[in-house]
Amino acid sequence: MRADAEPPHWVSRVLTRRVAPALALLPLVVAILVIGLVGDGERTARPTDTLPSGSGSAGAAALIADLPESDGAAVVLFEAETGTLPESTVQDLGVLAERLGATSSDDRSVRVAEDGTAALAVVPIRSTDELGQISEVKALRSELAESTPTGVTAAVTGPAAVATDIDAVFDDANTRLLGATALVVALLLVITYRSPVLWIVPLAVIGVADRLAAVVGTQVMAGLGVAFDDATTAILSILVFGAGTDYALLLISRYRSELARHESRYDAMAVALRRTAEAVLTSAATVVLGVLTLALSLTPSTRALGVASAIGIAVASIFVLVVLPAALVCFGRPIFWPRVPHHAPDRPAEDGGPADRSVWARVSRLVSRRPRAVVAGSLALVAVASTGLFGISLGLDASEAFKTKPEAIVGAERLARSFPAGTSEPVQVVTEADPDAVLRAVGETEGVESTTVSQQADGVSLVEAVLASAPGSDAAKDTVETLRENLDPYPETFVGGTEAEAVDRADATRRDLLLIVPLLVLLVTLVLGGLLRSILAPVILVATVVATYAAALGASWWIFVGVLGYDGLETNVPLIAFVFLVALGIDYNIFLVTRALEETPSRGTREGMLHALRATGGVITSAGILLAAVFTVLGLLPAVGLAEIGVVICVGVLLDTLVIRTVLVPAVAVLLGDRFWWPRQIERTS
């Protein structure tokens, strides 16, 4: 054993030839039994799941859901394939609409546009739950496909139809997402390890952890009554695979280098686990605390994402620190074939030797020789990328929320050309006050085209108002605000509907950002302070991660506008991207700085940081590229908002991995020297 090799650790007494197989297999067997016997948690979706708690739109949705007659309506748009609709065809459409149960305020089943090219019918949706509404819309579309007269096309739009199309585009999306994620991880692991067999072990361990996290997460959320949906489980899966693989890369890299120092693979793993466990646990704790700040959000589905992500990270870290080490030592050195690490105590260590031809040796020399230029260049790059922040537009309307427009969106756009723009998505005013007085107040509001009392039951009335402005426009949002001001005198009156929901989500996002962003920054700084027992180093590291976020969001905006052709950011993208980037981005700084702290007593701060850069450069860069690639898989989903989250995190992780952690942080440490650890004083060893 080399002089610098560590003596056997207590872990080596646990990871023995007899115990290791049980330690590897028992958690896997238990996990598989839980996955198979318990299964994913289930809950009935509520209209308020994605609406800010306490908002007017949430209050309206809750009251509407309790109305006995229906939860909404589907708008059927009939359009002449050529020219205008003949009178005989209009009569046939009236008969069809009556059979479908269509109603209107003037007792006509269909309403013909002034230009004569289209007609609409409003068909009640009787179900009060989302699945029931989806079933009704599908049945309605099936009936229209068979019964619509020749020469006429029919499209179903309105909120219920939009919900149906959302469900359709997400159908089997999580299965496709999981397959694509596993394929990306497998490919990158093969490239990283250059082994046709090694990748199987971490991928299998993390794959089981992913499914267990989904089961545990959904069961916990269902038990707590926390709202979750397909987007929640999709991001959970991405996070488990990404973070779990990162932790595995760090462990396996250190294990490989220790195999050259120790003849016993158990001793090698004991040292590797001892040296990486603190960094992994600190990283996992940081991510868990970070994502849990989302539980303070006003939006139920965002709170669910925080809870699910925390559970996923906890499960992933446990599997990597318990199951993966035991599994690796069971297979021994041949698992690394064809690049099998042999015991060579006199050979220079593979994890940081300053070989002249090493990429990371060249980078460390650049940082050592010109730290001021490196800092200036890095900050200039961040500043340039951040300029995109000044052009960001927040908020997407329904027509912009999907990569490919579904029937409900296409129908709404066509309807707006022949009818008042807000016909397909009327504002919903729900009141327990005098309905006639509320109706008058709504009708007198500037920007309201028409009004009707569509439902009344148990003292609750639903007034629907068609706006003159196009859905998603600033004018429509202004009308909603004016409407709410005019209805202030009426108690228990709520303004809901698509436009009101957009206004409330924007307000909730601003509040969440003001609360969660500073709290997350404080939590991460405190965790790093406890780990490093320092004040200055944590402040520097957190500042670099926040700068990375600003640059990533700014650079991503240019991608969205110039490359992908998006019109804006989904409202919740900045918050979710910030939480994940700060929580995950700090990981790589933790991996680097903890290694530097390990080397500093014997080498000094300057050389200790440079040695840490050489030692961790390959594995951290591989981990960052892998995590970035995994988050790009979100782009396979049809929702623009999820694709935007994936792009921002991908850009941020790459920037953090290739610039911030690689050159900026080491250059700052080189410039500051021992002051980097202030006020901590590190004793030098001989």
UniProtKB/TrEMBL annotation:
InterPro entries noted in UniProt: MMPL_dom, Mycobact_MmpL, SSD
Phylogenetic classification of the source organism: Bacteria, Bacillati, Actinomycetota, Actinomycetes, Propionibacteriales
Protein name (Swiss-Prot/TrEMBL): Putative drug exporter of the RND superfamily
Record key words, sorted: Cell membrane, Membrane, Transmembrane, Transmembrane helix
Gene3D superfamilies in the record: Multidrug efflux transporter AcrB transmembrane domain
Domain SSD: 212-330, 542-670
A Pfam entry, by short name: MMPL
Family matches, as SUPFAM superfamilies: Multidrug efflux transporter AcrB transmembrane domain
Topology relative to the membrane: Multi-pass membrane protein
GO cellular component terms, semicolon-separated: plasma membrane
Main localization, broad class: membrane
